[in-house]
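Notes from hallway chat w/ T.B., transcribed later so I don't forget. T.B. wanted the structure written out for a chain they're using in a teaching module, and asked if we could keep both sequence and structure tokens in one place. Agreed to drop them here.
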Amino acid sequence: MGKIKLWSVSDSPPTLAVRMAMKYLDIDYELVNLDYAVGDTLKPDYQAKSPQAEVPLIDDNGFVLSESTAIMQYLADSYPKDSTFYPKSVKERAIVNHRLAFHLSTYYKCVLEHMMLPIFFDFERTADTLKRMNHCLKTFDEILKRQNTLYSAGNNLTIADMSLVMSTVCLEAINFDFSPFPMVKAWYGNFKKNHADIWALADMGLQELVMYAKNPPDLSHLTHPLYPIRKK
């Protein structure tokens, strides 16, 4: 069997979450780098593989799958390293799935509108986006406080931490103040300290996002199906 192929944009938080999971699972893979700025994800040959025209995307010997959450769930089930990264226990897995759902429905949504969209597209960072971001962080902080564990879904690292860490990386890239959210700050610091090898991938994305936060890319030559492009 051949290696899994992973289509990637180097600073994409969802892609980096998948790469971090693959690092944890010791999965060898072929990385296919796409250039978002030249519109690689919007080209017909890529959309033939991914109708959403987004990354990440994997091809596991003919099995093609998009969406970072679905990919990590599939990889953790197909190439398990232990019984904790994506637990088989119904209740333990339900907690992990809740954190993944919270990430998709709430946390990354707020990160997207407060951090990512104002950098890459014609959106503004406002008092309202900050208000919603603070609400999301307050909710996450309360979840961690009530749970009182090292990681987002218990005392073991899970696929949920990969997604949540990468969203938090986006906020660090704009020097977001985490001091009002001590549980989030402690969880994030613990991940960096205890998983340096996995964090190295996240840090790579962080450095690129810091660069783009300071110097937003010119995407005026693109036509995006979802987001308005900032005029040059």
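Follow-up for T.B.: The beta strands are 4-8, 29-33, 57-60, 63-66. Might be a good example for the class.
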